Amino acid sequence: MTGYFCLIRPANIVTSIADILAGIAISGFFMGAVYPDNYLSVIFLCLSTVGLYGGGVAFNDIFDSKLDLVERPERPIPSGVVSLKQATILATLFLLFGISSAFFINIISGLLAISISVTALFYNKWGKHYQFFGPINMGLCRGLNLLLGISIIPVSIFNFWFIALIPIVYISSVTMISRGEVHGSKRNPLYFAAFLYITVIAVILYFAWIKETVLPAAVFLAAFSWMIFKPLIKAIKEPIGANIGKAVKAGVISLIIMDASWAAAAGELQIALIIIILLPLSLWLSRLFAVT
Asked: What is the four-CA torsion angle of 196, 199, 201, 206, rounded to 10 degrees?
């Protein structure tokens, strides 16, 4: 069971749930008349992202099993804790569960779930091997996941589709610097990542300014900035694998604070607080299971 949990990255899955809650907040779902039965839609979207993310990262280890024999022999598949067949069955079931849970909401949610699955599989098999396209491919998975949350009100997709560009930019930068967490990196990619981080923060602040929610959003963005820049600055000073790995881990976990910032910027402070509660859970899980 420990091997299975390592494959699906529990700490990361918590961040994907935060994406969904942020998307739902942006859609305006909670501003309307929400009845107890409607909360089933929230639950099924959260279950959907658990399946999609868990299956996606498990397939990542499946496709990397030969490489991990050399670079990460402690991972479940190369270490023999989980066989390749067992991992494939687990990953397939998770993806199917994620897709079927999304179709329970509406057709658009289901189609987005299929898109996330295809995009994740493409990244795992081919996308990651491309210097430029790989990080964008990975970011696209997160952008679609945010849209999956927004799709709880299908028409909201047409109003807020552009917001998905922000997690694409952010995760692209995290993925870009993650390539140095084994053998180290040059400083230029780290400087570029810092620039993209600043861009993301500026866009969320602009969204909050339009919604007249700058103050609450700024509080969460301050915490977000501290969490991502502290390890990144250390990695810039000494770009060795260990420091870069910590910067990548912080970048992934900090998605929860970024999602809370989106919810606060959308005027949903209560949802922002619910999202931020997920942070200690993700941090605790990250101590038990690998994030990258």
From this structure: -160
